[in-house]
Design goal:
Layout: E1 9-22, E2 25-34, H1 37-53
Antiparallel strand pairs: 1-2
Length: 71
């Protein structure tokens, strides 16, 4: 994902979530900032597709566009 970062895209994290372990599962947050919704969607689709191809275990992913808080 960082390889896609450019002047249109900023990647912050990954970092532990405020509730980093819940129900015996670890949680992380990754924030992707962009003024272009198109660049944001492209980065997300590319990253998810590449992660699956590389064999990442993607049990649960939650995408929140314009979150009200980061809790």
């Amino acid at each position: 994902l960082r390889s896609l970062a450019n002047s249109e895209l900023r990647v912050l994290g990954p970092a532990l979530s405020p509730l980093s372990k819940l129900k015996n599962e670890y949680r992380f947050q990754l924030i992707i900032k962009s003024k272009s919704q198109r660049a944001l969607r492209h980065a997300l689709k590319y990253t998810l597709r590449k992660s699956e191809l590389e064999g990442a275990r993607m049990q649960r992913i939650h995408v929140d566009i314009d979150p009200q808080n980061l809790m």
